[in-house]
Amino acid sequence: MAPSLTLQDLSRQRRIGILFICCMSLFIVGLDNTIVNVALPSIGRAFQASVSGLQWTVDAYTLVLASFLMLSGSTADRIGRRKTFQFGLLLFASGSLACSLSPNLGFLIAFRMMQAVGGSMLNPVALSIITNTFTEPRERAQAIGIWGAVVGISLALGPIIGGALVSSVGWRSIFWINVPIGIAALVLAGKFIPESRAAHARRVDPPGQVLIVVFLGTLTYGIIQGPSSGWFSLSEISIFAIALISLGLLGAVELRRSEPLIDLRFFRSIPFSGATIVAIGAFVALSGFLFLNTLYLQSVRGLSPLDAGLDTLPMAAMSIVCAPLSGRLVGTIGPRFSLLVGGAGLGLGALLLVFLTPTTSFAYLFLAYVIFGIGFGFINAPITNTAVSGMPRAQAGVAAAVASTSRQVGQSLGVAIVGALAAVGSGSLLGKGFTSSTHASWLVMVVLGAVIVTLGIVTTTTWARQTAERTATKFGQ
Questions:
Q1: Under DSSP, is residue 41 helix (H, G, I), strand (E, B) or coil?
Q2: What's the gap between Cα 154 and its chain centre?
Q3: Neighbours of 117 (CB within 10 A)
Q4: Burial, 48: exposed, middle or buried (Cβ in 10 Å; 0-12, 13-18, 19+)?
Q5: Closest to 225 measured CA to CA, from 203, 207, 243
Q6: pLDDT digits (tens, 9 = 90+) for 281-335
């Protein structure tokens, strides 16, 4: 094939191959968001880690991923998408191997951050490749639907695969799975994906990047440390003040830059703004669900990691079944139905768990898991589709990167919030009062489900679509 071949010149078979390669990278990044959860009790015992240490094992990954997604996307536009994608795969696989060799919790958290830097070069870059490969609107919507489905599948399979590996080989094995998949995707990308760049790559925005890291880092740190430090202690007030100031400065700085890291004009589009909120809310619910259920099933009910993973199979199965269905529906009838079913499923599943006790029947748990899984299975595809709807193709990658960032922010905040709420209720996440202390967290998820349903209606109205069209027109000028 000629070296000058562009993404738009590719045959349908080649485009499908590119979609598969990009989805491989998405799978391992998504898997690593949830596979660690089921290993937390084992990691805690191995390193004698505190609960806040376990929270950071999850949040160090999601925070760094969220912080650098936008930078990685703009870097790929500048130096080449395939080149950045391949380097991200190499860094992610190397970080995974390093995680498996960690001698203590500090090194594990550091290598999780290394993983995340590599992961930040995968999702937005791969999605940019997809949106520029599939140029026909209907085909592009279906490709993005498949992309969203893979997100749901990878996140849902994490606890099951993790439980099997932890029980049979040990917690370090959960990181090995990324290495062969990462290497295979690296080789295939070099062989099948043509190099591409943006016609006009955005400039680097160091002030914006620094402020994003400071805001997300201080906000999450403050929430995680709140129960132990005291919510009204001087240190907590100072941390939250820094987070608030950095957020204000971020808005002021980005409005003044000609090529900001986050273009605030995007938020004039109601569908885009709604997709951002939906992504954060849905992934707060997912990460909170996985974090609390892992501790409940293993620490309260005494299940092994494998049994705990298998007990979440109803949730995973529903996500796997519903995610492709949602992607197809989004590509044919639009995002409203999927958003409504997704929000309702998340909210109702969480409502059932508000009544959780140490002796709740497994039949009742499975019903809650099934409903929650249906909700999560339906919610992923419309997030990305709604975020990029109406945007010019040149801006689709950036818009999708914001949606991906919102997912990761939601996951970070979810673990931080549910951990903090549970600790406030019981004094210790692993104490005897753990189950009752989680009730407030489940109520928060019920509210988030209701918010998603409301946004599913508002963001798909004629008025909302008109705001997206006006925003796209202004971007095109």
A1: helix
A2: 11
A3: 18
A4: exposed
A5: 243
A6: 999 998 889 888 888 888 888 888 888 888 888 888 888 888 888 878 887 888 8
